């Protein structure tokens, strides 16, 4: 396939940035989207030009770092996949493909397609954990009976990979889907109940402090989430927040 790539190039946080055209030839439909970018970067390096900066790690849909817009859609045109799982067979010979970074105040661009998602780390640090005694006397997890539906729902929430597509797709740049997944994975389990009150209050406060917008129930986050995180988690977090506020 021969394609035209229109890629956002931005030298650094304070650079204005612009779309630059790159023709690319002989792209195999079996290549992943990131492999196609690797080929482009190899060509740019050989020509003495600066390669396109993009984030990646696992390349199998579990680390959440390969976040970018492809033709205006978070993680591209295929549903329930990350960019590293997107393949060039999803495009046609002669296509023009726009490739841009996430756009959100709380995710400032570092360079080209890489944005700073450390706001998510700070939200996690505010309460996305349980305190466990690891001195050697830890109770066997299987000794605590847990309702099957609760265990499955907690597991589903825990599949959030922190990619930020929910924020990037939301007209308000809201992080509610991400934060609610992180709250839900603990709220449903006995191990998470000990710190539940502080967790939801602290994580929501940190989310607001980071500059994410409010949720107005548009639902774009759920549609674009590569892990199918459900809006039900936002409803659960709102209930947890209300109950914690009344206690606090
Ligand atoms: S909720 Fe979905 S879109 Fe948002 S960070 Fe988690 S995996 Fe990514
Ligand atoms: S590189 Fe890890 S999810 Fe894409």
Protein described:
The protein has 248 residues and is of the alpha+beta class. The chain has two domains: 3-111, Beta-grasp domain (Ubiquitin-like (UB roll), Roll); 118-247, Fumarate Reductase Iron-sulfur Protein, Chain B, domain 2 (Orthogonal Bundle), CATH 1.10.1060.10. The protein is 36% helix and 11% strand. The protein is built from nine helices and seven strands. The protein has helices at 33-46, 118-125, 148-158, 165-169, 176-187, 190-193, 196-209, 220-224, 232-247; strands at residues 3-9, 18-24, 69-70, 73-74, 96-100, 109-111, 114-115. The strands form two sheets. Strands 2-1-5-3-4 form a five-stranded mixed β-sheet. Strand 1 (3-9) and strand 2 (18-24) form a beta hairpin. The longest helix has 16 residues, at 232-247. The chain starts with a strand and ends with a helix. The chain binds iron/sulfur cluster and FE2/S2 (inorganic) cluster. Residues 56-59, 61-66, 82-84 line the site of FE2/S2 (inorganic) cluster (FES).
């Amino acid at each position: 396939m021969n394609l035209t790539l229109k890629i956002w190039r931005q030298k650094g946080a304070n650079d204005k940035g612009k779309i630059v055209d790159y023709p690319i030839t002989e792209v195999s439909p079996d290549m992943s989207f990131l492999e196609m970018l690797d080929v482009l970067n190899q060509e740019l390096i050989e020509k003495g030009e600066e390669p396109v900066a993009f984030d990646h790690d696992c390349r199998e849909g579990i680390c959440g770092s390969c976040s970018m817009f492809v033709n205006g859609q978070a993680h591209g045109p295929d549903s329930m996949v990350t960019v590293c799982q997107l393949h060039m067979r999803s495009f046609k010979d002669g296509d023009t493909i726009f490739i841009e970074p996430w756009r959100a105040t709380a995710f400032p661009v570092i360079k080209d397609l890489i944005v700073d998602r450390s706001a998510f780390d700070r939200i996690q640090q505010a309460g996305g954990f349980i305190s466990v005694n690891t001195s050697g006397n830890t109770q066997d997890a299987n000794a605590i009976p847990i309702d099957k539906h609760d265990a499955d729902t907690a597991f589903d929430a825990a599949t959030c990979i922190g990619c930020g597509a929910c924020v990037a797709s939301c007209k308000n740049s809201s992080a509610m889907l991400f934060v609610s997944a992180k709250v839900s994975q603990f709220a449903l389990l006995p191990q998470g109940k000990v710190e539940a009150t502080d967790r939801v209050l602290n994580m929501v406060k940190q989310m607001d402090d980071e500059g994410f917008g409010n949720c107005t129930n548009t639902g774009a986050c759920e549609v674009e989430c590569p892990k199918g995180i459900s809006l039900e988690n936002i409803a659960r977090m709102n209930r947890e927040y209300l109950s914690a506020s009344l206690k606090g």
